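User: Predict (wild Malaysian banana) hypothetical protein's structure from this.
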Amino acid sequence: MDHPKTLDLVKELVLRLLSAVDSPSSDAIDELPRALRFAHRLLSSRMAPSLAPDELVLAETIKRQLAACGRSSDALAFSDLRTKLSARSSAPGSIRNRWALLYLLKSLSDARRREPLLPSSATTGLPALPLNPQPSHQSPLAAKKTLPPSCGILLVSKDPDNIREIALREYGDIVMDETEVSESALVRDILFVSQGIDGRYVRFDKVSDRYEPPDLLKLPRSMRTMVCKLSELGWLFRKVRGYITESMSCFPAEEVGTVGQAFCSALQDELSDYYKLLAVLESHSLNPIPTPGSVSGVTVNYLSLRRLAVWLAEPMVRMRLMAVLVDGCRSLRGGAMAGAIHERAQHGDPLVQEFMGCLLRRVCSPLFEMVRSWVLEGELEDTFAEFFIQGQAVKAESLWREGYQIQSAMLPSFISPALAQRILRTGKSINFLRACCEDNGWATAAAEAAAHVGTTTRRGGLVYGEPNALEALVVEAAKRIDRHLMDVIHKRYRFKDHCLAIKRYLLLGQGDFVQYLMDIIGPELSEPANTISSFHLSGLLEMAIRASNAQYDDWDILDHLKVKMMEHGDGNRGWDVFSLEYDATVPLDTVFTASVMKKYLKIFNFLWKLKRVEHALIGIWKMMKPNSIISCIYTEEGAAVKAQFVAVLRRCQVLWNEMNHFVTNFQYYIMFEVLEVSWAHFSEEMDAAKDLDDLLAAHDKYLNSIVEKSLLGEQSQGLIRILFVLFDLILRLRTHAERWFESIFQLQLRGKSKLKTKLKEPGSYPDVGRKAIMQLAGEFLQRMGEDLDKIAKEYSASLDAFISQLPMQQHVDLKFLLFRLDFTEFYSRLSPSK
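Assistant:
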């Protein structure tokens, strides 16, 4: 508009419009200045149509309108002219705002179509300017109704009589009549309330637990609603500030802890930023609020209720989040608090995610420092019991199993249970190496792990929001420290050698040692238990070691083997209380705990009794072998006794063969199917173990396998009782056999020497004639046969019960035991009901 040519064009256009209304005269010249000012104001106006400036759409609309009116040639001409105009868009002096030009032409055309033109405008083609003033007694609205219809297109762009300002002033008068308090006073009250301070009109009501203006205060409904809505911020602020004050007044207390302190610190920092915003709003509230209808274009930053609502929209969201966290974390602490805040962070709003992420980085800082210290240093810096790993004072042998446990209640949700177990094991490994193994090699392994993943070993190396970094550090540290621990256990403390020694001596795998020990210690164990010296038995144990291949084993390992006498009563024999034990020292007692050694003792007693039964059967065989029995002394008159003796001896040998068959096959099953197979599996798992937990699990599996397969488990109690009955019957046969064959030997001596005097030994037979001796021998053999039949009957019944229960056992190896015992189906044919 400032260009001279533009001003000249506007002046010429206005003059033409004035000449269309009135004939050229002095009046038209007089109206020119006022009409020119109106034209300048109209052209300088920023009012624009509420349409998107799309030239192509507007051009197509114009062509369709021309075609619809039957002016197809005009539509083609318009399209050709617009194409030429567009082609010259880059030429100097071309029209750039073609859309505005097309819109002006279309608006003029639509105005001509809707309203009839004045006769005077038919020649010029433009409407006349409304320069006649309106009568003073007419209202602006009435004046608008009396405007010439040809001027409608100009009134769309400008309101020369300020109708809008008049309406706003009238609205302001109505509002002031309905309001007792100015809006600026309410704004100041809201700013006070936002800081938890009662304002002049808006105060905190303890009954309703909220800030609200009094009911008697005269306010429009919209303004009262706005005040109540903005007052919510003060109620939220009051809750958050109260929690911070209460928590910090209790610190340092276990109920707050370092995580709670970090949470309060993060909330306090958010409130500090909130205070800064309130200071800015306080400065804006000092500027007066313009009244409705006042002069537009005010540039001063004033603060109305609606503007305050816009300013406080984001702080309201943040304060509401903080209040929700305060309510959810009031009774929580430590890892549980961090987990609860993490669950609230799972939100789709980017604003909420950003806010919660910043808050969690502050809150989880103590927790991640505990993880770093535990994984890399083995230190449990948990003064207020906030960490998800809890330690307790225990003995060195229980350090690994009971020293440290996971508190599920303190485990945050962003750490998985598997990762928590790995964190626990890594710290336990460091403490185990330091306390039990007296080894410091873990420090090098931890430093190498941190360097490998690019994490510093100093404080602040781990932060929230980087789960991959945390998991990478834990995995790498666990791998390196566990590898070092396994090297120490296997190489320095020779774990496998100790396990092999237990297998040889406690599980009776060293055959020559066991046989020699049984031979030399058997007579001692036949005595009453209270008359046996454990020191004497220890000497016999050392003698058995030196007399067998056990002497070539390492004496550092053999020194752990000791004699143990169990608790006994007055009627117990040495066989009932004798046992061997393996004294495992630190750190091996972590594996060979008291409960584990009880299981080994249980297995040893069972195997020792099995060996005793085998030893008893060998003793019976030695007494029954032909060169030990002199049967030729019986003369012709003793032929009947001789036949009776041979029959009884044959029955005894048949019973011995049956017992020996059972014991031999059962012992083969225990020694090879149970002990050797379990040891082979344990050796493989022991070599493949990557950490101490794997090693403990492999050993427990090995020991439990032996217990279950050896009929010592809880589910085989009925079967083991029958087995012990069979063992007792074999031992009973040994006792009877000793008495029988001793008596037979005495009879043979008396019959051969024909002694007539009374033997001095107690229980010897009197000196009677040869016929009397034959009679006594017949009676003795008859009693011997009766006792033998009784033992055989009980043994057959017990063996039948034992074999009948084997198929009902769950373990598959026990079914193979049945196959070995009855591979000829002899017992199946004897008992077809099975």
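The beta strands are 203-205, 210-212, 389-391, 404-406, 561-565, 578-582.
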